[in-house]
Amino acid sequence: MKAQFYRKFLTLGALAWFFSISLFAETASFEVSLFTGISGLLKLGDSYNKVTTAISSPFEKLTLAETKEVTQLKLSDVIFFKQWGLKVYFRKNGAVLITLQEPFKGNVRTKNIALFPFGPCPTGDWELFLTKELGIPDFKLTGGRFNSASLFYSWGDMSFNNNGPNELALYRDPLVRKFREKNFGRELHLVPTSP
Fold first, then answer.
1. Residue at 195 is within a domain
2. 137 is a domain residue
3. Which ranges in 33-104 belong to alpha helices (H)?
4. pLDDT (tens digit, 9 = 90+) per residue, 133-175?
5. How many Cα atoms are found within 13 Å in the side-chain-facing hemisphere of 93?
6. Could you tell me which residues are beta bridge partners of residue 60?
7. pLDDT in tens, 37-85
8. Residue 191 within any structural domain of the chain
């Protein structure tokens, strides 16, 4: 009787171990530098070809609405890696904007900020927590998608709501910053339903 119990216990343990390894293999975690990009994956200034070669996942090309801010950006391409929650905006000379949102998993280098676990703030107030970790922002805006606020810095911006950080954007260009001032917060990408 004991032998059967131990055999079942070991079999269940082996199965749990196997499935946990395959689960972790699919949910890679990255380190994000606020000043360059995603370590070992892509950085600001990388060419379209370099990014699409380095990330061997399917992507879709996006078309942005023709607004004054978008026209001023003079973008050549925008690509979206849906399974990574990663968008890259390009001009002819390379990537000028990188946005990350869930399901992207990683952390901000040298900061105690995980991307994007969603949940209550460990200290009770997300804005205070993010300001403590990232420093005093240049300015803050509210009214973003999903009731987001965003803290703007020289390296880009971090959007958040009551559930925590929901989008990280990396850029340097002042025109990109103007665009982001009106376009921040987590986006919801609906899957089309078939008739």
1. no
2. yes
3. 48-54, 68-73
4. 999 999 999 877 777 899 999 999 999 999 999 999 999 999 9
5. 5
6. 80
7. 999 999 999 999 999 999 989 999 998 888 887 888 999 999 999 999 9
8. no
